[in-house]
Amino acid sequence: MFQRRWARVREGLGRVGRPSRSGRQTLALIGKSTLAAAASWYVAHDLLVAQTPAFGPFSAVLIMQVTLYQSLLQALRYMAAVCAGVIVQAALGFLAGPDLLTFVLVALIALAIGRWRRLGSQGTQVATAAFFAFSTYSASTGNQQRAEQLGQIVLLVAIGCTIGVVVNLLLWPPMRYRSAEAGIHTLAGDLSALLADIHPALREHGFDEDEAQRWRRRAADATSLVSQTRAALRAAVEGRYYNPRRFLPHNRRHKAFDGYREVIDALERVAHQTASLTRTLYQWPRNETGTDRDGFLRDYADLLEALADITDRFSVIDEEHLSDQAEELCEAATTAQDKRARLVERAEDTSLPLGDPSRPYGILLAEATRLTEEAQHSCDSLQHATANSSTAGG
């Protein structure tokens, strides 16, 4: 019991000591945004002597994203939203004049256009641009001055977006593949640590309700990590688009990240099955005793130990060595299959109520089957993905 508690303490300390890139990414984004805003202000205020120069730096900061792909995407969407808002205001303003009824119509049409899903999060900028354009239009005198001011808004937004994208391009946008690897390593490491904590307790028959409840919480935490890991993978994939760093020799090996996708899919299934397993252990009847029960738990512990080995291998996965690691994982999955077969065979030779749905034994056997099948399927899928990648590369 003391060893398991000490293992949990070490695991907690390990989590605290894990390096995080989010702080550095945030600082880099702040620095890029500041530089882009300053350059946009200089162009708009000092060179163009614009009456509303703030549109430039505002646009540069608004479209600044971690990846170059997202910066380009947001810049295009923002430009489309601003142009739509200005066009709506210009059309209605020149036709009806700058009165309240015109403003109501501008707001109505701009808000409707902003609902277009292709604009994404920039949809709200249609109405914002229309309102600013209406204010500028109302403050101007004469149609020529009004047209010049509305055109200047579009020009300043284009300048700000262009400067923002250029700054992100020139200041080495991150590839983010390390974040994808880190996410996979964290998820697999948490699952491996959980299984490694469970199987000694089963072997010693020493777990109680409180400990089973902690296992449930940890399994739920691991399940919640899946979405974060997928987000990190999407960022890694997007980080390659239009990124000049992808041509560097050490970055060329990262292509479609197919192997990573297979790994995340595998870990998601294992996480859900582990959560189901811990729920069954939490509901374990405390009055269960006997030699058959102890033998069942020992065999089950052997299987979980083999599964912990598999997830531990996932925690050090590296796309550059996926082919070799996939073979090792399949060997470990074969070992898990053998231990599951031995578990089932010995359980069937006992007097345990395997067919009673109100007792845990049959449910645990079903969970064992699902976990080993997921492990085997994961390894087969990973081998298939690496084989396809090698064929495409050849």
Automatic annotation (TrEMBL):
Keyword Transmembrane helix: yes or no? yes
Q: Where are the transmembrane segments?
A: 50-69, 100-116, 152-172
Q: Which UniProt keywords apply?
A: Membrane, Transmembrane, Transmembrane helix
What is the protein's membrane topology class?
Multi-pass membrane protein
* InterPro entries on file: Memb_transporter_dom
Give compartment(s): Membrane
In this chain the Integral membrane bound transporter domain maps to 41-167
Protein's name according to its UniProt entry: Aromatic acid exporter family protein
Native species: Streptomyces tubbatahanensis
